[in-house]
Amino acid sequence: GSQILSALQTIPQKPTIYAIARRELPSVALNTKPVIESDSTSWPNKLRSLEPTPEVFISALGTTRAQAGSLDAQRAIDYDLNLALAKAAKDSGTRTYVLISSAAVSAKSRFPYSKMKGELEDAVKALEFPHTIIIKPGLLVGSRQDTRVAEATLRTVAKGLGSISKGWLTDWWAQDVDVIGRAAVAAALECSEGKREEGLWIVGQADIVRMGSRR
Q1: Closest listed residue to residue 99, CA positions, set 60, 51, 52, 144
Q2: Contact at 8 Å (CB) between 137 and 177?
Q3: 70 exposed, middle or buried (CB, 10 Å; 0-12, 13-18, 19+)?
Q4: CA atoms within 13 A on the CB side of 133
Q5: Alpha-carbon distance 3 to 81, whole Å?
Q6: CA distance 34 to 49
Q7: What pLDDT does 128 receive?
Q8: pTM for the full predicted model
């Protein structure tokens, strides 16, 4: 989420940015208005109360089973809260919804994480925002606080390959979180500026790299 906020704060048009978070943000631009609430169950109502209604809503909300304590607790955040926020955004009149999801997820998967992410994608598609954007990166590389041991090892390999090959060995299976953040914002801007037809837009790994690598 911090990478998306950083990308939003560099937009030349300086739109008003509402950042919903549990704790105070370390630093924000003058056009950013933090909405700090430790009780995340109240976030959908906080979103509904924003004036003016945000034209774009971007969700990078997610946790790990280890952080949450159980699969059910993880689902309460990754699926239930995400969907509640999406519904609140739709009810409020938001036109462009952006979800940071993951590659190769499916509601029919036998794996709980993949199944949950796939179910969320299907649920937000059914809300039928004028613009629904689903960002589907591969392995996330870069600085993250919720790193799991196995993923940390793969990220180290990905970083090493990326530095050796200038990206071409990793771009197809691992993307830097800063690149993903810039791609999400770039996709949202294309829709809000009328450069994309209304409907569903799946942004895969190649497009993430193309859009997120722009400076």
Answers
A1: 60
A2: no
A3: exposed
A4: 30
A5: 21
A6: 14
A7: 98
A8: 0.83
Mean pLDDT (10-residue bins), the chain, 215 residues: 86 90 86 92 95 94 90 96 97 96 94 96 98 87 46 37 38 65 94 96 92 75
Q: Which residues of 191-214 are buried (b: 16+ CB within 10 A; e: fewer)?
A: bbeeebeeeebebebebbbebbee
Q: Is 28 left (phi over 0), alpha (psi -120 to 50) or beta?
A: beta
- Residue 147 in tokens: 């790193």
pLDDT confidence of residue 29: 87
CA pair distance 116, 118, nearest whole angstrom: 5
Please report the DSSP string for the chain in residue order: -HHHHHHHTT-TT---EEEEESS--S---TTEEEEE-S-GGGHHHHHHT-SSPPSEEEE-----HHHHSSHHHHHIIIIIIHHHHHHHHHHHT--EEEEE--TT--TT-SSHHHHHHHHHHHHHHHH--SEEEEE--SEEES--SS--HHHHHHHHHHHHHHHHHTTTTTTTTEEEHHHHHHHHHHHHHHHHTT-S-SEEEEE-HHHHHHHHT--
Please count the residues of the chain: 215
Q: β-pairing, 131-135 with 199-203?
A: parallel
Asked if 6 and 181 count as a contact pair (C-beta separation under 8 A), the reply is yes
